[in-house]
């Protein structure tokens, strides 16, 4: 089971590489009760200001996840800073234990700071990064 939030498609692309049927967090939030159970669970989200987008924070804070292995993949455009640590402790404060967090540098969609055409022209070796993170998840790395 894999959840994702994506504004411009990076996270959707990653999510589709990791799972055949990723679930949209925006859609899941419409459900009144959110209790999820699966052997492995994942969440793909962009980094916003070194943290998670509010919608993803809300989803984590108000859902129950029952799983043996919970992984998170964060995409970003420039610097992932301490977003992985921030995410780990945010989830922990809502009684969600994250086993693995990977980050993937992709096209930056923060348009006030970056030019989209320049970003699209850059090769950030995204497929290579996705392959590596997928291998880590399949190996159930901590
Ligand atoms: C409001 C906003 C804040 C962002 N903050 C960061 C940031 O702190 N660091 C970073 O490297 N990229 C940042 N980005 C870029 C996104 O994290 C990145 O482009 C991500 O892959 C977008 O995923 P999506 O296409 O699935 O929405 C930000 C983008 C937006 C729109």
Helices and strands, in order, run as EHEHEEHEEHEHH
By DSSP, the count of extended strands is 7
SS element count, helices = 6
Range of strand content: 15-25%
Structural commentary:
The protein has 142 residues and is of the alpha/beta class. The protein is 37% helix and 23% strand. The protein is built from 6 helices and 7 strands; from the N terminus they run βαβαββαββαβαα. The chain has a 5-stranded parallel sheet with strand order 2-1-4-6-7, sandwiched between helices. The protein has a two-stranded parallel sheet with strand order 3-5. It is globular, with a radius of gyration of 14 Å. The two termini are 18 Å apart. The model has no long low-confidence stretch (mean pLDDT 96). Flavin mononucleotide binds at residues 6-11, 46-50, 75-79, 106-110.
What's the quick description here?
The protein has 142 residues and is of the alpha/beta class.
Topology readout:
Blueprint (H helix, E strand, L loop, with lengths): L1 E3 L5 H9 L4 E2 H4 L6 E3 L2 E7 L7 H9 L1 E3 L2 E8 L6 H11 L6 E6 L10 H6 L4 H13 L4
Parallel strand pairs: 1-2, 1-4, 3-5, 4-6, 6-7
Flavin mononucleotide binds next to helix 1 and strand 6.
Protein traits:
single chain; 142 residues; alpha/beta; five-stranded parallel beta sheet; two-stranded parallel ribbon; 37% helix; globular; binds flavin mononucleotide
């Amino acid at each position: 089971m894999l959840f994702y939030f994506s504004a411009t498609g990076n996270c959707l692309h990653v999510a589709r590489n990791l799972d055949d049927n990723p679930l949209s967090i925006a859609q899941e939030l419409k459900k009144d009760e959110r209790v999820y159970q699966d052997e492995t669970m994942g969440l793909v989200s962009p980094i916003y200001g070194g943290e998670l987008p509010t919608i993803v924070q809300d989803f984590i804070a108000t859902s129950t996840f029952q799983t043996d292995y919970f992984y998170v993949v964060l995409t970003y455009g420039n610097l992932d800073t301490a977003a992985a640590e921030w995410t780990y402790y945010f989830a922990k404060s809502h009684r969600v234990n994250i086993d693995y967090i990977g980050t993937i540098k992709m096209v930056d969609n923060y348009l006030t700071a970056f030019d989209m055409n320049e970003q699209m022209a850059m090769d950030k070796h995204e497929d290579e990064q996705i392959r590596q993170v997928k291998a880590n998840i399949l190996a159930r790395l901590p």
